[in-house]
Structures are given as C-alpha cells and as structure tokens.
Q: What sequence folds into this?
C-alpha cells in the first residue's frame, strides 16, 4: 500500500488553504466593487425599469446683429406630454384632454401613432400650449394619469418680417429626417432650422438636449419627478453674431417703395460682410413657432408675390445696363479698347444689324463717345459694337470666368445659380445649330438675352470694381477671420480707377444725376431691364466713397420702369450708412405699382431668342 509522505500532505493542505484564501479575497473584492464602488450605477440600472426619461430641450443659440442687438432669441413655452403603458390607456386619457385642448380626431390619431413609435417615452400632446389650457389640465391632474407639463424654450424673432429671409425659421424635425440622420443628435420634437441662417448654422445653434426622469408604477402612472441627474442638464447652442446692421435694415425697409417687389443688398466690399439684405414682400417667421396654421402656410406657398423667396439670392433678372461694366472689363482685359477708345459707328439712336434695327434708349443718339463716356451716358449703340468686337466665344468664356454662371457661395441655403451660357453649345441645344446667329452678342452686351443674374452676384461684381486689385470676397452674413477672395478682374489699377471715375460721372451728371449726395462721391450705374410680364425692372448698384469704398449697395425693383427712379433710394442708403441719419435727404422716389403689370414669377427668364434676336426690340436698357 502506497501512502503519501506526511510532508507532501502538509504542503498540499497549505496550498489548498492559500487558494481558498485567494478565491475568498477575489470574491470579497468583487462584492466590494459591486456593493460599494458601483452602488450608484447599479441602483440606477435597477431603477430604470420604473423610471421614464423626459427630454429637456436645449436653448438654441442667440442670433444678433453686428452690434449685439438680438435678432433671434428664446422665450418660455409650455409642452404637454403623456406617459402611458399602452395605446388603449393613452386613448382613454386623451378623451379627457381633447375637449380642453381642442384636439380633433386627426390630431388624436397622430398622437397615438407617435406613441407606438416609442411607447416607453412620453408622447407630446401639445407644444406651445396656451396658459389657460395648462391651468385647466393642472386642475384635473388627479384624473389625468401620466400627465407631464414642462416649460420648453420656443424661438422668437423680435423684428418679425424685417429680417425673415436672412434668419429663416425653425420647425420640428420629421420622422423621415430623423431616420436619415441628417440632423446629428436630434430627437423627435427637436426644432431644426428650415431656411436662412437658422438652417445654415443649425448644428452650431441647436445645442445638446438634457434629460429628466419620472418614476412610474406597474401600470405606467406617474408617481414622482426624480429631476435631472448630474451631467444631464441641457446645454445651450452657440451664439451667432452676424454682420447685419439692424438699424440700416430698418431704414431700408422704411424707404423701400410700399407694396412693390424687389430686393436691396448692402455689403462691405473689403471683407464681404453683408450689412443688410432686404427682400419684398416678406413674411413673419413667428407664425411658424409651435407649428404654422395650414391655411397660413397655404397662403404663403400659393401667393403670386412669392413672399417666402429671398429675391436677393433667389430672384434672377436680366442685369441690364449695370452689365455694361462687365463688358467694359472684358474688353479692357483683352486689350480690345482703352477708356478713350471710340467705336467705328457713332450713336444715331440705333444700330442696323443685317435686317434688324437695334435701338438705343436715347432715340436721337449720343454721337461719338469714348468708353468712359459710353458708361456715363449708358449708350447702347457703343456696347452693341463692343459686344461684336469681343465675339460670342469671348463673351461667354470671360463671363463664366468672372463667376456669372456660378453661385457666390454666401452662407445661406438655396442660393440660385444665375443663367449664363458656358459655351455656344448652349444655344445649339436650345435652338438647334441653325436656330441662332452671332447676333446674340448684341443682346449679351447690354445685359439682355440669355443672361439672368441674381442681385447678390451683381453686387459681388461691383465689389470687384470697388476693391484695389479688382478682387471681391465671398459674401458672408456671419463674419469670418479668413476672408476668401475670388479671382481678380485682371485689368490694371489705372483702368480700374478709370472705370470708377466713369461710374462717378454717372451719378454726378449722367443717368443717375438726381441721386447725387452732397459732399459724397458715389460711383454707380443705373439699369432698366426688359420684362415680358409687364413694366420693366429698375436696377441701381453703387459704392462709396469712390476713392476708398466702404459699402456697395445694389437694388432691383420689379416694375419700377427706370433705374434712375431706383437710384435715389440707393444713394440715400449709402449716405445713411456713411454719414448718419442727418445726411439723408427726403426724396420722392416716384415708384408706384403699375396697374397693367402681371404678378412677377420669382425666376425671370430672358426673352426667347429667334435667329439671334430677342422677340422684343432692345430699348430702354439704360
């Protein structure tokens, strides 16, 4: 019989004892970690079965003007929600609420459907609830199980219609958007930007929601409010300071012709800061808070005047005579002319081109003019010939190179791409290779034909004329430390100065003479754009002081008939900004709504070209 040595048995017993001690210590440590160190976490985990999370909406960041004046802020509102264990229970509770909150059957069905999507979360019954409804429900709280009433911020726009197109508005995220993850971090009920700066900077403005917990019993009835856990507080979104000068915006709104349509844009040419952006007609973004009334929404959507459209960046119009500076820049860049060059044919009131007579706005003619004089007096005949000298290929390639077939890149959504052909293939596709002739160069040379531009794109070009070196920054509503500039005009500083002096002459003694401001040298150009829908549209774009420009202002007024009638409004805006309110003259702009003009679509396409000519005579383009 083989017995183990007594010493071996002792060693094994000792080893076993140490193993038991080690296991005991491990178990003791685990119990200590679970019961002491992890107590809060595991207690919370065990209580999750009887706690229901309720989101706390974060405050959206404020939007202010350049001087800190609040343009968009938040005010308290009441949100009514219900916690319910089942759809049947929810419907029973809603039966008590419906008469007090005036909920119809469609709304009740939508609430139940939302509950089915997330049955453990409270379902929103009413946002921005009136105080009287909240009071009535609180009085009946005992009879309404699962009732949750809490204050949530709602957006407010103190200036209403004044900056609606710039700011935009917010509304609740949809289930489709939530599923697409387009708005990172959003939840059902989150307010997201729909247009304007609210949309462009939504991620920065939105903030981070918090969460609070309510205890419920086995039947899902609310027992008590556990409040907000540490770290669960909502975090407000980032504040955005814009370049807008709200006082200047007020002034523009006040002097813009009543009941007329159009837009005004004021920009600092040095850095691209947009100082004011006015589009008429406008709308009240406060009507969207808490959900817009369907009838109001339908009215806004179907209105022929298109109040929801921002005409400064979405309306496209024939650029008319302000375009003549583009043609002049092209010709100087190509070395075709100098500022003192004259055309072969003097202006006698029109130009015969094969079997068609193209008229000048001045029927008795301007005579022989230099380029600088042709700009001053807006001679169409001079620019018809200059367009022929450039030729269709250069007109198109140079125009595209200057950005007239592209968006400016302003920090707003939904900017429209201007209409400008990239090459002759455009005409071939639209009219057939033999359906047009090089006579389209005459149309393009005076800002008509296959050319429709946004106001902001034309203002950007005049900023190029205003700046030393001939380059313009990308327009910005929210200033940036890094100013991004496009390609320069490519002409000498002497030629740039010559163009500026020609524009000064327009205001001092040319087509905009009655818009002159004493003691302020303003450089600008009038324009009258043909409109097949009724009276012509008036343009005026100007910058000042002409020597060292600090502001460029452009305006287009639909059905104004003449750009010279728009010019005084623009020069007054410039004077208001540079010299103060005391410098502004009280003028009658003589702009009235013509009774024989049809409502204007927001997108203005040029007249049809047949055999190289427009279907209307090209006159009154000054």
A:
């Amino acid at each position: 019989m083989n017995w183990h040595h007594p010493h071996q048995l002792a060693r094994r017993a000792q080893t076993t004892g140490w193993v038991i001690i080690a296991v005991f210590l491990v178990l003791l440590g685990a119990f200590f970690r679970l019961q002491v160190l992890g107590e809060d976490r595991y207690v919370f985990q065990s209580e999750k079965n009887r706690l229901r999370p309720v989101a706390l909406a974060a405050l959206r960041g404020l939007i202010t003007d350049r001087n800190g004046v609040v343009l968009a802020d938040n005010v308290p509102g009441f949100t009514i929600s219900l916690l319910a264990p089942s759809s049947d229970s929810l419907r029973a509770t809603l039966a008590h609420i419906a008469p007090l909150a005036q909920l119809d059957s469609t709304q009740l069905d939508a609430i139940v459907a939302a509950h089915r999507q997330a049955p453990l979360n409270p379902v929103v019954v009413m946002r921005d609830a009136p105080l009287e409804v909240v009071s009535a429900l609180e009085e009946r709280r005992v009879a309404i199980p699962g009732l949750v009433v809490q204050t949530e911020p709602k957006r407010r726009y103190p200036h209403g219609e004044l900056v609606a197109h710039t700011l935009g508005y917010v509304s609740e995220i949809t289930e489709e958007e939530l599923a697409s993850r387009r708005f990172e971090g959003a939840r059902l009920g989150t307010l997201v930007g729909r247009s304007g700066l609210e949309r462009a900077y939504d991620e920065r403005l939105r903030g981070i929601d918090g969460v609070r917990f309510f205890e419920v019993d086995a039947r899902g009835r609310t027992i008590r409010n556990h409040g907000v856990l540490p770290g669960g507080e909502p975090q407000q979104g980032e504040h955005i300071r814009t370049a807008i000068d709200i006082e200047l915006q007020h002034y523009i709104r006040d002097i813009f012709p009543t009941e007329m349509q159009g837009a005004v844009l004021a920009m600092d040419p040095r850095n691209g800061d947009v100082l004011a952006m006015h589009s008429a007609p406008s709308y009240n973004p406060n009507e969207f808070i808490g959900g817009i009334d369907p009838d109001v929404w339908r009215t806004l959507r179907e209105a022929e005047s298109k109040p929801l459209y921002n005409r400064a960046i979405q309306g496209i119009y024939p650029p008319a005579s302000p375009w003549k500076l583009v043609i002049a820049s092209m010709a100087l860049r190509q070395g075709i002319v100098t500022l003192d060059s004259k055309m072969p044919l003097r202006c006698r009131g029109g130009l015969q081109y094969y079997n068609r007579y193209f008229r000048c706005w001045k029927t008795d003619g301007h005579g022989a003019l230099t380029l600088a004089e042709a700009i001053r007096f807006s001679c169409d005949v001079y620019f018809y010939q200059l367009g022929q000298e450039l030729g269709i290929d250069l007109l198109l390639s140079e125009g595209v190179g200057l950005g007239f077939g592209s968006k400016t890149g302003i920090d707003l959504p939904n900017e429209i791409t201007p209409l400008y052909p990239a090459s002759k293939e455009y005409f071939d596709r639209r009219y057939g290779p033999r359906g047009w002739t090089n006579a389209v160069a005459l149309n393009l040379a005076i800002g008509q034909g296959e050319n429709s531009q946004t106001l902001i794109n034309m203002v950007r070009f005049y900023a190029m004329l205003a700046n030393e070196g001939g380059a313009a920054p990308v327009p910005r509503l929210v200033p940036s430390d890094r100013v991004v500039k496009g390609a320069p005009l490519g002409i000498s500083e002497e030629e740039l100065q010559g163009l500026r002096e020609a524009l000064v002459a327009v205001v001092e003694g040319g087509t905009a003479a009655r818009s002159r401001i004493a003691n302020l040298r303003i450089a600008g150009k009038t324009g009258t754009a043909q409109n097949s829908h009724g009276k012509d549209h008036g343009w005026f774009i100007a910058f000042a002081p002409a020597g060292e420009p600090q502001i460029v202002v452009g305006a287009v007024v639909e059905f104004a008939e003449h750009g010279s009638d728009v010019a005084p409004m623009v020069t007054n805006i410039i004077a208001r900004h540079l010299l103060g309110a005391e410098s502004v003259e009280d003028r009658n702009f003589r702009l009235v709504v013509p009774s024989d003009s049809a409502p204007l679509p927001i997108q203005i396409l040029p007249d049809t070209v047949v055999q190289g000519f427009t279907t209307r005579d090209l006159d009154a383009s000054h």
Summary: The longest strand covers residues 70-82.
